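User: For a benchmark we're assembling, each entry needs the component sequences followed by a predicted structure for the full assembly. Here are entry 17's components. Please fill in the structure.
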Amino acid sequence: MTHPTLDPRTPAFRDAVHPGINAREDGARGEGAWRSPTAGEGWRWRRPNGPAAAIALAALVSLIALLPLGFVAWIAVQTGWDTVAALVFRPRVGELLVNTLLLELATLPPAIILAVALAWLTERSDLPGARLWAWLAVAPLAVPAFVHSYAWITVAPGLHGLSGATLVSVLAYFPFLYVPVAAQMRRLDPAMEDVAASLGLGPWEVFLRVVLPQLRLPICGGALLVGLHLLAEYGLYVMIQFDTFTTAIVDQFQSAYNGPAANMLAGVLVLCCLALLGAETAVRGNERYARVGSGAARLPDRRRLGNATLPALLVPALTAALSLGVPLVTLGRWLLIGGAAVWGPAVLGAIGQTALLALAGAALTTLAALPMAWLSVRAPGRLQRIMEACHYHVGALPGVVVALALVTITVRVALPLYQTVATVLLAYGLLFLPRALVGLRGSIAQAPVELERAAMSLGRTPFQAVRQTTLRLAAPGAAASMAMVALGIANELTATLMLAPNGTRTLATEFWSFTAELDYAGAAPYAVLMVLASLPLTFLLHAQSKRAAGR
Amino acid sequence: MTMVFKHLARAAAVTVVLTGSSLTALAQGTAGSAADDGIVVYNAQHASLTQAWADGFTRDTGIKVTLRKGGDMELGNQIVQEGAASPADVFVTENSPAMALVDKAGLFAPLAADVLAQTPENFRPANGHWTGVAARSTVFAYNTAKLKPEQLPKSLLDLADPSWKGRWAASPAGADFQAIVGALLQLKGEAATASWLKGVKDNAKPYKGNGVAMKAVNAGEVEGAVIYHYYYVGDQANTGENSKNVALHYFRNNDPGAFLSLSGAGVLASSKHKAEAQAFVKWMTGTKGQEILRDGNAYEYAIASGVASNAKLEPIAKLQAPKVTPETLNNKAVTDLMTAAGLL
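Assistant: Structure for entry 17:
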């Protein structure tokens, strides 16, 4: 279970010399022999077995992660081509495609421009209060998207359709772009800009031709994240009267449960996600962005805004007013109207259930991501990359697709699991596996492999060695992963609505049922609690992105 | 290898211990306990109404009631898929089509004669597999500043006319609207329904929920909406902020738009608590249950045990509702037609 470089002999060499060594050793050795291997035989079992166990576990998780996608394919085959064609090639699907496409096209450019402008102002200009504005640019993440739309529909009841959906989407999701773009801006090497300026480029040209191209990766990554969220979002668009595939699937689900029409819409939605992933890969390109040369880059200068300070201040101020002011003022107003009456014991119950689900889901998801995270750092390879893709793709699937798959699978072939906490947790695990993986992988990569080796040379078994060294060092990363997963679960709506056991009441579902009855005052406490629970995690995320940039 | 798995098993055990307590707590808070000492009700009716019924029932009998929330068709289809393994003891809906669906699958246990006797024959299916518990009337809620009484549609069918393009709203994904379409299908046949739905697709603005549609009427975004009566009555009794510019138009004359939709309740054949489940249905249709309709804030029509409806409602006799057979309302045909029309 160690890195291949531990042993001077390559795996290929070992396999050539000792074919079938694993099988023999596994069968023959007693436990005592495992605990105190002599130095000579240590290498023979350590390496092959460790990865093998981790690979087996990661493969199992990968297979489970393939369930929703496999299910969509299976249902398409089951339904038969004629029905598929009738359900997919119809004007309604065309409308939804156009809506979805327009939404992506209308939301992404303004979100990118806003994020880049804010990032430049907070990181590269002498804007007064830059640090405060930076925090305020991240904070909207703590407001779940459907709370954003609830606030906006209160302030502007006439808001609807594409324009309304675009406005709220940009405000709710631009921080996903701001965080990586700002982090990248912090670590850009100003020498490149100096060279460009010395060659006669003006400030705008330097920005467009030197800075902007270096922001390509964070913009692509952030835009992909926003794009996937737009595909998956449900609550936001229901309130704003805008139909996307996700809202149409829920409509079908409510009208005909898990019928073929719902599943075919899910199939098209999956294709949309894959198209988005493909587009991101194509746009991202494979240029090199790392600086060449020795030494560290100096800190970038902050450009003086001078007379432009006041108008420049308007950008973050207006953004904060729209993305934070509107939700907070609305929530405050509804809280006042609701008074003490809305804070019944039901609120407490919802907090408890949400916390339990979030805790259990976060622990299980992080544990499930562990083998893959360890493998991708310590033993990368082609098989590992494929399995990693299996882990990641499921996070791009909308909750409604995962939930629909699990509803049908459990109700048809695993009825005892149907409507149980186990199934909800499985859905959470699938949806948030990538979040857990990202945090874990980063922190495992920072734990020196030498410690594992040293531990094993002192007689620890591979698993003990990993547990006592790497896992301990990775604990903060694991905690961050768990926090990110827990945050996702606390705000998850669609899958919870469709899968939760009888009587489940989370903050999100309670908020949703109150708003469905137009009882906005009754819904306010749940929204406030979701925001309060998310705030610390949002700040943690911001702090992490700063640390990753080394500043 | 065994060693590695042993350690993994230990790690897994730690996680299980970590999460185990929370899972147990969750299970206790949810279905686990309910199955043993009470009944599970799949409730598609308004949560507050069924909760009031359940609370009254528990107070009188000591039998606990656990509610699962969902839409009519969502829960109806769910029961059909669950089949004999359904955890539900009682199914309560807002409209009849979901009851018809479950009945067609043969999943209802016949109601006892004394339960049925509480509801007049015209408010329950002839086969006695389920019963009506409440009723709601289709209305055209309109903005009084935008429409004069003489401009109102004479029939629900008029709304498919091109002159109504973009002027009215509906909530096509909701069970309420689908029940109305179901009645239309029964009364006028498939061809007329399909062509009316085509008009709906062209003319109506789709909203999510009848309350939201009424809010849009109130705000003047549309001139009118096809909804049920109680959204208006309830809002008027409350703050009136979503209905101050709204009035109700009843189609009457046995028009499909005068459809009176029956909310149903039935006991599942798979229930392991049939006696308690029958008792709950009996309680809902009994005097106390119907008085909750009369005195509470549900504003649906009381139909059983001779209890009068809330005085704020248009008298049921004046609605001139068309005669519809609730047990043959076919929502599968409706959703297929609506899917074909591009409404779903």
